[in-house]
Structures are given as C-alpha cells and as structure tokens.
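Lecture notes, part 5. Sequence design as translation. It can be helpful to think of inverse folding as translation between two languages: the language of shapes and the language of residues. The source text, in structure tokens, appears below.
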C-alpha cells in the first residue's frame, strides 16, 4: 500500500497567482509550478528567518522533509530566474490553517471564519468566490 502523502501546514496562501519576467523577447519560455508549501518554506526560512527545526514543526513535517521542500522551492525559483520562466502558484499538498477563498472576478484571496461562508468578495463584492483547495 502506498502511504498517503501527509499534508503540509500552510498558514496562508501566497497573495499572487504568479510572476512573469519582463523585458524584450521573454514571452513563452514556459513556467515552473511553485507549490503553496514551497512558498511557505521560503517564507519561513528566508523571510521570517526561522531555523529549519522551527519551520518543520510549524509545517507539521520532519526536518529532512522540510529541507526537501525548501530545496525544491529554491531550485524552482533559480530555474525561473535563470531561464526566464514564469512562476505559477499551485496548491500542492497544502493544508491551509483557515478556509481561504479566491475571488474569480478580481483574484483576491481572503479568509473567513466558518460561520460566514457563502458571502461575497470583500474587495469587489462579486459572488464568484471559491474555496481554495487541491484541484
Ligand atoms: Zn473580488
């Protein structure tokens, strides 16, 4: 029996859908998929300056697993920069701490307590919102 992949705890999804290089002749170089947990690993280690032990505990993974996620994230970002590829934000194996929603009209991401699900987007008031989860 293959073991079920443990979900990685992610506090909040990235605020972007993706990044694109700009400059002449940089269209169509392809893209890399940066998973939510990879974004979280970069955020914890390189932005919040946590050590890998603390970050692993926060994400609910072992230290070696954290190191693998972190290395994968750095590799993807390096490939994107050097090969001028887009970076796309992808759900991955994340377990978001709260329910997070995406507004498909203005692409805002927002979270809400359970009790007020099925409201409108707080930014543009569109009712076209969906729960962020693995596709
Ligand atoms: Zn909206």
């Amino acid at each position: 029996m293959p073991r079920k992949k443990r979900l990685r705890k992610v506090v909040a999804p990235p605020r972007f859908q993706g990044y694109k290089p700009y400059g002449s002749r940089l269209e169509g170089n392809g893209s890399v998929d940066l998973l939510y947990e990879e974004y979280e690993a970069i955020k914890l280690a390189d932005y919040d300056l946590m050590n890998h032990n603390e970050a692993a505990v926060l994400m609910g993974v072992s230290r070696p697993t954290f190191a693998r996620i972190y290395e994968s994230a750095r590799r993807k970002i390096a490939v994107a920069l050097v090969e001028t590829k887009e970076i796309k934000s992808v759900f991955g194996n994340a377990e978001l701490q709260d329910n997070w929603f995406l507004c498909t009209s203005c692409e805002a991401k927002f979270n809400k307590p359970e009790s007020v699900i099925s409201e409108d987007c707080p930014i543009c008031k569109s009712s076209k919102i969906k729960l962020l989860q693995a596709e």
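The translated text above is only one of many valid answers, since several sequences can fold into similar shapes. DSSP finds three helices and eight strands in the chain.
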